[in-house]
Amino acid sequence: MAGGAGSLDPPAAVGSLGPNLAIAGGELVASWIEPVSEGHRLRFSRLSGDRWSTPVTISEGDDFFANWADFPEVVDLGEGALMAHWLAKTAADTYAYSIFLARSDDGGASWQPFGRLNDDDTPTEHGFVSFVREQGAARAFWLDGRATVEGGPMSLRTALVGSQVGPAEVLDRRICDCCSTDAAVTAAGPVVVYRDRSKEEIRDISLVRRTREGWASPEPVSADGWRIEGCPVNGPEIAVDGERATVAWFTAGGDRPTVRLAFSVDSAATFAPPLLVAGDDSMGRVDVVLDDDGSAWVSWLSLAEDPSGDASEGKAGGAGARVRLRRFGPEGPLGEDQTVAVTAAGRSSGVPRLERLGDVLYLAWVEVREGSSRIRLRRFSI
So what's the architecture of 3-381 in CATH? Predict the structure, then answer.
């Protein structure tokens, strides 16, 4: 059970969205998107002890493609270097946007534009980026829509971002359209998890690993058999420590919404049968981190009555959401689940983000109350 909970909200303006957390230089860093008079700006801050640094603007413009599900990420490249990304419109079409990069060589105190990640000019979707560190560079994974110009599917691609953006490689030519990806580095090499898509519209969680022979073929994490015609906008998360790995995800296979968790002890080559994290009230929007003892901490959203009575965003009867946290071992739950906070159930509440630094957990989310939103953060001693 996590204990000693305390709030420590990042210095984000009211109405901010897309919070994300990372560990850089042995400290917690946060990024988020703020609305400004003409567009949006991507902000960055570092937590030292109990104090957040003065927020730094990574990028600002009236062309941001800012939304609740596809938010920026910061990755630590080592020796004070950081890489960040955001999405910006590239044509008049609603979903015509690309992935843009910035780099910092002073721990985030200043940022320089680094160009575009995707190497095509099609007026299509590009996003849901995840990064891993690779030999002082960043390896990026993303959803790429260039094939949709001619009626094709969304694909999963990767590229190494060093002194410049390297050539893109296709890892899976047919995947779910708008579920987030996540990536990590196991003892055997990098791995990326995502929601796949079969020709029969089965949208279960798959992964791709890099082996000594190169990128392996996609493999399912679990055969849930979730057949759904449209994208559920609910991607998986992975946490890794050497050969140990765990993946958390949402599914509604068998017409039952659940959050599930699967453990691996062979660098994500195989997984044990999944554990049930949450049942019929679950909304997904998961995150997961590993503890030193091999257990996993999982966060997710579940339906709840909204005490504010705010029925905006199509919430029937003022439905809200609970931000929940629970610890699991390979055999099942360890302790009771905790309700960290209550927010709205609509898109404005975003996706809670979970990070671990030593014996402390950090959980960030968007609190929506009475039409106003604010980014919150709590830390827990474990």
Answer: 6 Propeller (2.120)
